[in-house]
Amino acid sequence: MKTICLYFQLHQPFRFRRYRFFDIGNDHYYYDDYANETILRKVADNCYLPANKVILEAIKKHKGKFRVAFSLSGIAIEQFLLYAPEVIQSFKELADTGCVEFLSETYSHSLVSLKSKEAFQHQVEKHDNLIEKYFGMKPSVFRNTEMIYSDEIGSMVADMGFKAILTEGAKHVLGWKSPNFMYTNAINPRLKVLMRNFKLSDDLSFRFSNHAWSEFPLTADKYAGWISKLDPKEEIVNIFMDYETFGEHQKASSGIFDFLKEFPNVALKNKLLKFDTPSSVVDALQPVSSVHVLYPISWADEERDLSAWLGNELQEEAFNKLYALQSRVEKCNDPEILKDWEYLQISDHFYYMCTKFFSDGEVHMYFNPYASPYEAFINYMNVLSDFTLRLDKVVPENEMERQISTFQRMLDEKEQKIKKLEAELKIKPVRKSPEKSTQLAEKPKVSRKKRD
Questions:
Q1: Tens-digit pLDDT profile for residues 424-435
Q2: Is residue 303 part of a domain?
Q3: Domain-located, residue 366
Q4: CA–CA gap between residue 356 and residue 360 (Å, rounded)
Q5: Residue 264's CB: how many other CB atoms inside 10 A?
Q6: Residue 444 domain-assigned (yes or no)
Q7: Whether 346 and 279 share a structural domain
Q8: Model confidence at 357, in pLDDT bands (50, 70, 90)?
Q9: Whose CA is closest to 159, among 122, 121, 210?
């Protein structure tokens, strides 16, 4: 019997507003609230809410035999709470069924796993605490940002106590091997590795509504048939995709929601197929071998590497300058600076700077608020410059900056005191001196007669 492991990723970034050079040092609010709310509401109405409804109905209909997994970034949860709290409620209803698993990831949907083990661990812990708070479960399976994985990253994840990680079944990694088996990390075999079947996943994510595709239209019967006809020895089919596939990448008019409704019905009629969550799959199956991934891979673009985020000089400079501040941020206790630090790490900012417009240009332009990679870079660096100035005041980099920071604090304090005194002077009316008033009142009048 083959197990179908369905996993969906949810993430929406906090997008920056147009932050000009002259804003640096003058305006410390970086975010485009209108765009963030508008896009989140649009995707919630088109995808998250209707798709959650379909999945909940399927779980109830099949009495627990239909099972799926989700990964929600901490940033996405923040936006749900701000703009669409009903999405959180719909996920709570799914969690209550016991048929939905929530996976771990980085809180900021960041690339921090490439820079710092300690910072990576901190973000993961913060994310998992949020998942436990809202959905009542502690994740035991990890999914890194954009499925970025290497032997070293897997070893770090194993050290954190996770039993499995999800990643891409990249051709240049697997070679002749199939993604339809469970593997182990090459450094720490305790960590199981589930690899995405990119062909079957992309058939839904990218090709479903393509009229030029030779398999169009894709029906639930046809799709389930493909899975059942795979090599009988293969044990698991990992179908991993962005949740926005339903209703956003593939519009409702394409029939994608009808497919989602029908697929569990068709698959569960086949006695050779079943659905399960990643943690249950890991408990049920035995790994066939280790998988060696010396250099990081991801599920992005044709290359399945890091070039979508770190493939040009603009991205490298922004990335390195950001994480050059890491040690100083760790000494900071200012909540506003720490919150902005989390938002600066969101991987989408680097994705917007990508120059790969030939092989995967359409994907990179999706929800991209910038007209060009260079514009994205300039805007980000302006924000980062202002952030650095704020950090300098709180955690100076050297002795000279420490002294400047001290003098600046003194000036700020004096300026605040002056403003306070000025405000008090405006509020309080000018009163005559009581002593003078008395003297004036008691001054005797000199009569004309006496004076003469």
A1: 777 655 555 555
A2: no
A3: yes
A4: 6
A5: 25
A6: no
A7: no
A8: low
A9: 121
Q: For residue 432, what are its two tokens?
A: 């005559």
3: left (phi over 0), alpha (psi -120 to 50) or beta: beta
Residues 115 and 10 in one domain: yes
Asked whether the bond before 396 is cis by omega within 30 degrees of 0, the reply is: no
Domains identified in the chain, total number: 3
pLDDT in tens, 239-297: 999 999 999 999 999 999 999 999 999 999 999 999 999 999 999 999 999 999 999 99
Q: Tokens representing 57?
A: 């109905």
Q: Which two tokens stand for residue 152?
A: 């070293």
- 278 and 323 in a single domain? The answer is no
Q: Name every residue whose Cβ is closer than 8 Å to that of residue 13 and which is 6 or more positions away in sequence.
A: 75, 109, 346, 348, 349
pLDDT digits over 198-233, tens only? 999 999 999 999 999 999 999 999 999 999 999 999
**Are 376 and 365 contacting, i.e. CB atoms less than 8 angstroms apart?**
no
pTM of the shown model: 0.86
Which range marks the domain in which residue 270 is found? 2-291
Average pLDDT value for residue range 61-86: 97
Active-site hit among 78, 86, 101, 146: 146
Count of positions (residues) in the chain: 452
Quote the CA–CA distance of 115 and 125 in Å, as a whole number: 17
**Residue 146 is a catalytic residue:** yes
Task: Assess whether 415 and 341 both reside in one domain.
Answer: no
